[in-house]
Amino acid sequence: MSQFISIKDNQPTLGKHNQIIGAYLYDSRGESVGKIESLLLDAQTRKPQFLTLQLGGFLRTAGKHILIPFELCEPQDLGKVVIQRSHHSLADAPATENPDAPSALEIELSLEYFDRATPAG
Q1: Beta strands at 80-83 and 24-26: parallel, antiparallel or unpaired
Q2: Which of 83, 88, 93, 121 is the most exposed place for a label (fewest CB within 10 A)?
Q3: Distance of CA 80 to CAs 13, 33, 57, 68, 88, Å?
Q4: Superfamily of the domain at 4-116
């Protein structure tokens, strides 16, 4: 059994503050990075652990999907979430093949990357 549950629609059980699927993620400079595709909830506690985002992609080419630890994100106004990282640092984050069911290695790499990545100044 997976340790995460992927959800792609905002649900009342998330609580208003965590209903960010479909919101736009903004970097530390206030630039839009992308649209939040889904949340990965802890299978036992049902609390958000990661959000998934697709970066890049142009004219039918797929970009890469990344996992961002939920605690790094600050939901603000309706439809807006901010992360204190630069767009460039997010672009350098490790990709995940299947954002709905990431492997243990992909989760570990994402956690290591964001612990190591310094906040944008």
Answers
A1: parallel
A2: 121
A3: 20, 11, 21, 15, 19
A4: Photosynthetic Reaction Center, subunit H, domain 2 (3.90.50.10)
Query: Helix or strand or coil: residue 12?
Result: helix
Domain boundaries, the chain: 4-116
Whole-structure pTM value: 0.85
Residues 67 and 39: their CA atoms lie apart, in Å, by: 9
Please identify which residue in the block is written with the tokens 């906040």: 119
In whole angstroms, what is the distance from residue 40 CA to residue 99 CA? 9
Q: How far apart are the first and last CA of the chain?
A: 40
Tokens of 117: 């990545």
77: pLDDT strictly greater than 80: no
Q: Which residue has the tokens 């939920």?
A: 70
Residue 44 pLDDT class (50, 70, 90 cuts):
very high
